[in-house]
Give the backbone structure.
Amino acid sequence: MIFIIILYNVAYKLYYIFLKNSNTIIDSISKTLYTRHKVDNLYFSYCSESVTFNKNVRDTTGLILNLVQLKCGEKTAPIIVYSMSMLNVNLIISVKNFSNFRRLNEKESRQISLKLAFDKENSAEPIIFFLPVKISASKNYNSDNIFLLVEFIRKPPDTIIIMLGELIKIKTLSDKREDKRIQVNKHTIKKLHFSTTSGILELNNIKKKCLVKDISFTGMKLIAAGNKQDFINKKVSIKLQFADNIGVNSIDGTIGRTDLIGESKDFVALGVSLDNNTLPFDYKNIIADFLSSNA
């Protein structure tokens, strides 16, 4: 029996090392220098705005669902994070667990804390936070669960502030300027962290060199060699070449518009619509930083 438990623990650690998504916002934060001024600016700019933890955000942050809990004294309860700001968290908890927590909190003055766990690149151990909170409001979610609002008792750690702040900044910019095209040329590649304007386009398991002409939150314009008809409505994977340690392996999209380049029949301009559900955080962050610095 002990041998089986040891094997399970080893397998669990190997899962987090080799199978988890290594390109999360937590990993990106760890590779970036954030000054005190920058962290404070994110907090005061976005502290009251919430991030809804849908599947895309959960994947981007690397939130480990089965390790997210409320803790009161020695008692723990599984919860679902619905949304989070730097001031409070909306979560879902069972009616039974909520009753027990409220009794412990109100009658026995036990401190409640929120446990959050996130994947960390190349590590078997997740990053875990225990954040002191207090119950602010509650209402029925359904017959079995409660929709609960808890407030942070003190400012959350910098990592949480940066994570939420960067997500909100990107969403704000993408909502306002989602179709804003950034020209990719010798004057912009340094700010975009590109090593070159060339890229690799993969479709139908065939890799082709391409030239990246412009990028945005929602699309790209590429130039590639080939027959125009071979590109129409094809799903593609694009690999950009970065100068820095950027966590973007590939970007998925679908080719929409195709245009011949001048009189040539050998080169085609491709309009690619990007898949927002799989769009890497680092790619969106590059665009947000560029637009912010050139506003």
Notes: Residues 2-176 form a domain with the Thrombin, subunit H fold (CATH 2.40.10.430). The first helix runs from residue 2 to 18.
